[in-house]
Design brief:
The protein has helices at about 5-15, 25-40, 70-80, 85-105, 135. Helix 1 (about 5-15) crosses helix 2 (about 25-40), helix 1 packs across helix 3 (about 70-80) and helix 2 crosses helix 3. It is built from five helices and no strands. With about 140 residues, it is an all-alpha fold. The protein has one domain (about 5-135). The radius of gyration is 19 Å and the shape is globular.
Length: about 140
């Protein structure tokens, strides 16, 4: 989805069809803030650029999840307008679906492709496990 489509999505969610309630610059800032949230939760999206032009797309975020940026931005707009209930509902939806995406990537159900090389982006953040043997007094020689 292009940035202009994401902005239209925010306007639709917030029912701001006259473009008079929320400033477009705020919406753009919140969309880019949503991209930062993607990067924070799912590090393989660190290459996603901020959307500075109307025609830019948040690649390599899968297309079926790009609408989450509109949801995030709409939530932040509602928060700015002190409509906390609507904001919380949208933010919960965003975080839930972002977590679903993270799980799908970790399980291998969704493969993220680097748009420049065409190859799969592999997560370099391995899970660090704690060896419980020293804590439970289990010796390795048994």
């Amino acid at each position: 989805m292009k940035r202009s489509e994401l902005i239209r999505g925010v306007r639709s969610i917030t029912r701001d069809f006259s473009n008079s309630i929320f400033r477009e610059q705020d919406i753009i800032d919140y969309i880019n803030e949503g991209i930062n949230r993607f990067k924070q939760v799912i590090p393989i999206f660190k290459s996603v650029p901020k959307l500075l032009d109307q025609s830019q797309e948040p690649i390599p975020i899968p297309e079926e999840y790009q609408h989450l940026l509109s949801i995030y931005s709409a939530s932040r707009c509602f928060m700015q307008d002190e409509r906390h209930y609507q904001s919380a509902i949208l933010m919960n939806e965003f975080e839930t679906k972002l977590d679903e995406l993270k799980q799908a990537i970790e399980n291998g159900d969704i493969v993220i492709i680097d748009p420049e090389t065409g190859e799969e982006i592999v997560s370099t953040n391995q899970v660090d496990y704690v060896d419980l043997k020293p804590y439970w007094g289990i010796r390795g020689d048994k």
